[in-house]
Fold:
Amino acid sequence: MAYVTGESVQQVLKDLYGYEITAADANAIAHTAGAMLTMAEHLSGLNLEGIEPPFSYPGLLAEAERLQKNGK
Amino acid sequence: MPTPFLELLAFDAATLGEKIRAREISPVEVTEAYLTRIEQTDSKIRAYITVTEKLARKAARKAETEIVKGKWRGPLHGIPIALKDLIYTKGIRTTAGSKILADFVPTHDATVWTRLSRAGAVLLGKLNLHEFAYGLSSSNPHWGIVRNPYSMDRIPGGSSGGSAAAIVARSAAMTIGTDTGGSIRTPAALCGCVGLKPTWSRVSRHGVFPLSATLDHVGPITRTVRDAALMLNVIAGHDRDDSTSSRERVPDFTASLANGISGMKIGVISELNNGLDDEIRKSFDAAIDTIRSLGAIVDEVSIPSLPFAAIVNTIVMMAEAFEVHHQWMLKRPDDYGADVRRLLEGGMMMTAPAYIRAQRARARTIADALSAMSDHEVLIAPATAIPAPKIAGPSEVEADLVTGILRFMQPFDATGQPALSVPTGLSPDRLPLSMQFIGRPFGEAAILQAAAAYENARGPIPPPPEIR
Structure:
């Protein structure tokens, strides 16, 4: 269970992004982020063993080719 | 003799196209009718951010000249359409419904607009939306609250709220929306029109301001299923400017519309067939009866991991959306509406392992959905559990949107399957109720065929009250 507090949200946002928010906003975000991070842990229950992330090399090459064609 | 104004607006796009081709109606008179309608209704509905009146008239005249000379470009030639205002239009302001891009004028067209323009469509303007397409109400703090034409104190849904409201208010014949967590199908469902989210990658995203790159879909919002098929015919297909766009063959999506569904196996998704408002329940059950009466074989199917797909969708969207907005969030946080800023702040807390795990979980859900479809051509589900909620005010997050709407929508953005929302009727207080048809990846033709058969059997939905 991901336990995220308003204080930790304020700290992370300030340290990582230099972004400051009020304690009330931080508490609301802590609630959402905590729930989402907990849910992300629960996704492991879907038997993800052996499932690759969908970031394919052919896809990467196709994008590189597009950039090259457009001279970017 | 010119066709009366209201009669012109009553035609669906397919009929208009036939009449324009036969030179019974001129693109100029149709465009004038729609421009007049925008003037009459849009101060109340707020479907439009920008009306491109002069350009529309010019394009309509050009279409008329071409058709008179025998150069007919296809069924969309001379049809007045409008685009969600995150579709890039060269030389025309494209705000994404934001204050940040209030003065942004793209230097190139989105591929979807290039294709529609080549097909001869006439651009009426750019449509209002939930700010940066990140929300379901379309109560836009910068460009006005979009209202549901069936009930002015209710949301049209979002984020493509202007796109659906314009169809139902008859201030555009066809529109384009985008769908990342339900943003085509939700407004179509709540406003009582047809919304088609094609398979992910079926339609180019080039020149479409992103919300979440691996979840964003572009598609039609229209009055009828046939109109959606006609529009998809024009916009689908590989685009060299979008390396993720599919090279899958593009069929004629209208070819099987009249084939009926006798013998077709259709599955009701059990995970979504619960928790419905009474009126939605009755309307959905009646729709199932209608589909059965057309000869389809209907039974229940299960997609066990479906509830997780909504979570996957949220995690991926939060992470990818924040990446898009990172620099603006640091420099101009106060230029966002409160609800969108809050969602983006949530994205700041999303971790890389959570994002990658969510992306891996998508394959599991797609596998489950494909298993459910191994002997079913089409799946069905309610589009929402509730009719259009009341407007809560700009930037307010409404709690019941998650259980009432998002859980029906988000899974099919995560799986990338094609999904189409079509009205099933009106509630006793005259609010639209809708269902979804869901297909196999690149199986748009099958859901269009099934939805067309149902729509035909259902008959017309009473229009909204006159907008005053």
Chain A has a mean pLDDT of 90.
